[in-house]
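Tutorial handout. Part one gives the primary structure; part two gives the three-dimensional structure as tokens.
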Amino acid sequence: MVNKHRTLPLDEPLRHPDHKRPITRRDFLAQGFLTGLGLVTAPSIFSLFANPRAAYAALSPDIEALKSGCGIATQGAGKIPFICFDLAGGANISGSNVLVGRQGGQLDFLTTAGYSKLGLPGDMIPPLANPATGTTDFINTDLGLAFHSDSAFLRGIVEKAGAQAANINGAVIPARSENDTGNNPHNPMYGIYKAGADGSLLSLVGSRSSDSGGNSVAPVALMDPAVRPTKVDRPSDVTGMVDTGQLIGVLNQSDAVAVMESIQRISAMKLGKVDTKLTTDAVVKDLVNCGYVKAADIADRFGDPSTLNPALDPDIVGPSGIFSQAEFDGDGEFRKTASVMKMVINGFAGAGTITMGGYDYHTGDRAAGEVRDLRAGRCMGACLEYAARVGVPLMLYVFSDGSVASNGTIDDSVDGRGKGVWTGDNSSTAASFFLVYDPKGRPQLFTGDSLPPEQHQQIGYFRADASVETASTPAANNVNLLVETVILNYMALHGEQGNFGTLFPGHGLGNAALMDSLTAFNPVVSGTI
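Part two.
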């Protein structure tokens, strides 16, 4: 009988005969039917001018002195930028992408049958011998974290950020999450904000118009409506965030800033005559005064909104950019990634979520998943490379709602690459991982306890048959605690893991010794960048 299976193009929606018809936005996104504004305003007053001032990027000294008192930070809060990839639908992460092992770590190998369930045929599995033999077949540790050498994620990351490999390290967290449900509270953004991440324009951004900014929801206990992520999934979303009214359209940028400075001074003089016996009066005065200071600062830094535009950043697009012009123009996922990373890595936002759809890819072949994973890897690599060009550290976290498994059938097509066909959802094979880039050198695995380093590179472990050992860590069978584990590791990069219990009372990560065992890296910075 002739096999009439047709390989799906990269952006074609996934139609599963064993799934209900998509009826929610989550369903549409997971199956690839969907692809991937806040305003800051300034007064439009044209008749008030201050004394001449230097043009561009230099507020008058009296206004500049007020910025710190108003809490205006031009580089955000100084915390490590944080970007998470939400692969909607249940992507494969373990085994075929990031290697996973038993209690001894990533290279404490699974059985042949276990690797087969993770989509790796017998002739493509890591060696089953003792790692001490030095055999490295199908193992790649260029990024510190061990990947399968033919991982599509790895190929994409190396394509965009291969030159930065020596400054990258990572950790994998075996952890179950349910398939095809909106009840996985995977998104850590609010917790990252609570840990100190903030931006000079916005606190959080995300590529979806949702409470979490992504596809998966955020843990209810962490949500803060005051910092709900602002939607950013294209360059126009970024440039639309700064609105100085018509003032800069009438005046040049320097004169426009001078007008706003004068407004602040006049306002301050008038407010100085207001009786401040009541606390609420003082609060109102501060809000009004700082509002004009912020307006002047925004006009000074972003009077030309194109300074925010990722499409005009030569490090992102063009002959020497991370994306060629053709790549950028031809793929909305690249434009989405560029928009979020521009905001977060430059400190305009503290953290961001990039949601990519179409990862419910058990389509009876391997090719559909491979090409989607490759594009996701390119987007991850773009973020790491851009952090290197800007010269700041980055924590990159990748998760998906559920996972997939193979029955051992092989896809020998060009894009299938001779690997196992994804034949169905399987929550027991799920994992998440994160990568950390540090411009000063490769982040070092945690040395604050007696465990060997490999125990910190893989936080938890798999059984020999490729199922998550649900008792291995608090995160292994509880998505809320997976989020807490990620936040703990973010704080540890700043040397602040000791504050975790104070910031998150009632957490589920146990005592200090257990939290040390859940920590991947020694600090990268001391408190702030």
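Part three, for discussion. Residues 40-72+245-302 form one domain. Confidence is low (pLDDT under 50) at residues 37-57, 246-252.
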